Amino acid sequence: MEKDQLFTRRRMLLGSAAVLGAAGVGGALMSGGGDEAARTTAGLAGPQARQALKPSAFRLQPLIGSGTPHTAAPGKLKVRHQPILRLTGKGRNMMLTFDDGPHPDYTPHILDTLAKYDVRAMFFVCGEMAVENKELLARMAEEGHVVGNHTWTHPLLTEMARRDIRDEIERTSDVIEDAYGDRPQWFRAPYGAWNRATFQLGAEMGMEPMAWTVDTTDWMTPGTSTVVKRVEHGAAPGVVILSHDAGGDRTQSVRAIREYLPYLLDHGYHLTVPPRRMT
Questions:
Q1: Which pTM does this prediction carry?
Q2: How do residues 202-234 score in pLDDT, each as one tens digit?
Q3: Between these two residues, 241 and 48, which has the higher pLDDT value?
Q4: What range(s) does the NodB homology domain occupy (predicted)?
Q5: What is the 3-state secondary structure (H, E, C) of the chain?
Q6: Which comes out higher in pLDDT, residue 168 or 3?
Q7: Domain 93-271 class in CATH
Q8: Residue ranges per domain, the chain?
Q9: Is the pLDDT of residue 269 over 50?
């Protein structure tokens, strides 16, 4: 559990950064900002497993919730100055996202709950966890979840050289492609810490940057009831929920989703993932 404890200790040190990411979403949907703003801390259906895939040119749409995918001409992604913070579009759409996994003790239980209610979610995985639990990424693919890139070792990217950032991201994308069946189309910076290099490198590798709207702060293990309350009180159209399936003891996260997921569904929310588009 040393790796999990390291994640937790570093999160405690950078807790203010994560809170700033969650609190700062009110002023932006998918809008851009200046390069200086990008240096501040800011806060989306999975393919079948590789053996079931034909060579694919699929990419994911920007966050529009549900709807008919549109075709788009091939080309590089534009470099954003802020991460995408929430879903846009009509309807009571929300999205659940889980960071730091997959973890053999927690991720299967979260996947079981999602399967029970026929809900899809997004998992931002760390390469060092994914390489040890490839069967869980294959399951995510088979069950229609979206897998994003959360770097290899969960470092603070804003303190790293550009070549080292690229290595962290690229190695993780390679493992995801091998286990999940497709390269990731979304990237989330650890601790919600972004800068110009992270936006540029993510775009070069074909990934959109994604943050969150509501931070459950489950990484602080505040208690299952607190995590549930934060999701239920934060629920609204377009909201992206941040939770974790690794990086510490995630028993509370496992218990919480069993409570808040039926609540969200009973209140008319559609838990969605980004649709794919042809390039």
A1: 0.79
A2: 999 999 999 999 999 999 999 999 999 999 999
A3: 241
A4: 92-272
A5: CHHHHHHHHHHHHCHHHHHHHHHHHHHCCCCCCCHHHHCCECCCCCCCCHHHCCCCCEEECCCCCCCCCCCCCCCCCCCCCCCECCCCCCCCEEEEEEECCCCCCCHHHHHHHHHHCCCCCEEEECHHHHCCCHHHHHHHHHCCCEEEECCCCCCCHHHCCHHHHHHHHHHHHHHHHHHHCCCCCEECCHHHECCHHHHHHHHHCCCEEECCCEECCHHHCCCHHHHHHHHHHHCCCCCEEEEECCCCCCHHHHHHHHHHHHHHHHCCCEECCCCEEEC
A6: 168
A7: alpha beta
A8: 93-271
A9: yes
